[in-house]
Amino acid sequence: MDALQMLENALEAPQQALAVLGLAVALAGLLYLLFDAIRYRSIPELNVPITEQEASEQLQGAELYTPTTQLPKDKIPCYDPSSMQFLGYAKAMSPAEVREVIAEAKEAAQVWRSSSFGQRRRLLKVLLKYIIAHQQEICRVSARDSGKTPLEAVLGEIVVTAEKLSWLIKEGEAALKPRQRGAGVMAFYKSARVEFIPVGVVGAIVPWNWPFHNIINPISAAVMAGNAIVVKVSEHSSWSIAYYGRIVEAALAAAGAPLGLVRFVTGYGDAGHALVTGGVDKVVFVGSTEVGKKVMAAAADRLTPVTLELGGKDAFVVCEDADLNQVVPIAIKAAFLNCGQNCASGERFIVQRKVYGKFCERVTEVAKSMRQGPTLGAGPMDAGAMCMPGSVQKVQRLIDDAVAKGATVLAGGKPGPANWHPQQQQQQQSQAAAAAPAAAAVAVAENGGAVPPPSPARLTRRSAAAAAAAAGGSSDGSSSSSVGQFYPPTVITGVTKEMDLYYEEAFGPVMTVIPFDTDDEAVAIANDCPFGLGSSVFSGSKRRARAIASRLEAGMSSINDFNATYMCQGLPFGGVKQSGFGRFAGVEGLRALCVPKGLPFGGVKQSGFGRFAGVEGLRALCVPKAVAEDAWPFMKTSIPPLWQHPVGPAAAPFAVALTTMFYGPSIGTKLAGLVGVLKAVTGVGMASSSGGSSKAKSKAC
């Protein structure tokens, strides 16, 4: 009997132990959730006001605007490039006003340089919390100011910004802590270290293609490094800075940062010149090679250190053993995301001859299916507008030159109604009809009371014919009274060195496909380019892809992916040749906003910049090339079906939910994101259109 009892006790013991263990795990989980909720609530909640113009999916009764070279000196006209609706004016600051802003930033820099890393992280956490909770508002404002689709806005404005903030929060302090170095043979009794001291005030001049990310990117790095920053935004995307500036101001106040730590400048070229020459301690410029050279020349007088991220004409190499089912959707993204208006867009698609024909056939089919039109309130769109005035004409010049010299256009190649969404055409007709009575009265007055002959309806601020011409259509109104700076996704083959398109950056929705036979030939074609920013190589053999990528003259290479190096914010971002120099992401970019004081030999102010001793000096003699590839053979990048063109109404909500799931600052927000992902995938709660209120979208996501 005693033996039986002992056996029963022995069997019960493991069960009791498992029960105790399970209870302990459950208790630990509850405590973690409680701690996570408390931590989340400890991050201040921002209350940022938003105007009706910023909150509305569609603007009713807005005037239409025609771009002109005769601009007022003291203000900047702002408009939606996908609808040409006039949004108002932004202030064009004078050089004297810019210098005043720099002086205020210098005062704030003296305070912030001694801030703790904890306070700096708090500021970034405040920003991240607001961004994740208000993705729709941020993306709507970006879409209205720059003409991109809501899906593109989530991918380019939110995802990479959230990744940047997350990396800085987790790894920024470690990158900037003092580093111990060897003291050498004779100075063996010394302790040597390098300290990373904030430079002071960073001056950043950023472009228009990603209005939100382009300001938060340098701001977050600068403040994490202990600096103040003055950001000069582009005159082609100045409307959005009103809302984005309020976000930053509220975050600064919530984190207890000094007034003037982050300041914005709006204006034309003279304002940018004043920023470069007005006393900042470091200049970061993102833009064209032509302007970048002028920035460097202007900075030379004060020996101000400069980081330049300039043009690109990235090579996208596809080997015969690559998986076209993976490659084609990624290639479409590489060429046509944001209408190709990305510094690291894929422009030259170098495809091995064995799969060249199939690749061309498949990308052409997708390009022809992509719908283009006003990006807000008109239903799901696959492509938006060209943001900068004159961009449509520039792209058309390159295409016309290539075709005249023997190239073949497989898709696109001419602005016009072929790719327009039906709702866009309805919207244009409605706008024209609504504008007709008032416009007719104006026309009568302009003609001295005479009734003009029948003509296309005149639009407020411009005629329908002028609207068509501005969008790249014919001036006689034959392009269905086009409104919007549209150029269709274009696939072109047969491009040779005699054509301008071969070497010149298109910065538009143009996919140039070039065949090759051997790997050596692919490398030669890729390197036969004045630019060297990013690159991509696709092959079924990782060893082969690595070998090709290692020979490409570029600052970054993605293996079996496109632009993966930028999603890895721990990697440096920048190029070689005419794509600029210096880095502004990763450890290298963060330290570039500091003075490496200690063992590296070099000075500051009029003593120069750069280092030529120690680790820093040795690395300065190299190109820090960023490379990203799949870590595991069973996981590879593919474009989710919901994001493949033509996209449906769930594309943008899926992107918002996925971003929330990965970057939500609490378990609760991550779970909410997961629920949104499941809803988008299953179609639960998805409307038939991308329109609707922000509140409704929030519920769906």
Automatic annotation (TrEMBL):
<feature type="region of interest" description="Disordered">
    <location>
        <begin position="410"/>
        <end position="433"/>
    </location>
</feature>
<dbReference type="InterPro" id="IPR016161">
    <property type="entry name" value="Ald_DH/histidinol_DH"/>
</dbReference>
<keyword id="KW-0812">Transmembrane</keyword>
<feature type="compositionally biased region" description="Low complexity">
    <location>
        <begin position="422"/>
        <end position="433"/>
    </location>
</feature>
<dbReference type="InterPro" id="IPR015590">
    <property type="entry name" value="Aldehyde_DH_dom"/>
</dbReference>
<feature type="domain" description="Aldehyde dehydrogenase">
    <location>
        <begin position="74"/>
        <end position="415"/>
    </location>
</feature>
<keyword id="KW-1133">Transmembrane helix</keyword>
<keyword id="KW-0560">Oxidoreductase</keyword>
<feature type="active site">
    <location>
        <position position="309"/>
    </location>
</feature>
<dbReference type="InterPro" id="IPR016163">
    <property type="entry name" value="Ald_DH_C"/>
</dbReference>
<keyword id="KW-0472">Membrane</keyword>
<dbReference type="Pfam" id="PF00171">
    <property type="entry name" value="Aldedh"/>
</dbReference>
<dbReference type="InterPro" id="IPR016162">
    <property type="entry name" value="Ald_DH_N"/>
</dbReference>
<feature type="transmembrane region" description="Helical">
    <location>
        <begin position="16"/>
        <end position="35"/>
    </location>
</feature>
<dbReference type="InterPro" id="IPR029510">
    <property type="entry name" value="Ald_DH_CS_GLU"/>
</dbReference>
<comment type="similarity">
    <text>Belongs to the aldehyde dehydrogenase family.</text>
</comment>
<protein>
    <recommendedName>
        <fullName>Aldehyde dehydrogenase domain-containing protein</fullName>
    </recommendedName>
</protein>
<feature type="domain" description="Aldehyde dehydrogenase">
    <location>
        <begin position="465"/>
        <end position="595"/>
    </location>
</feature>
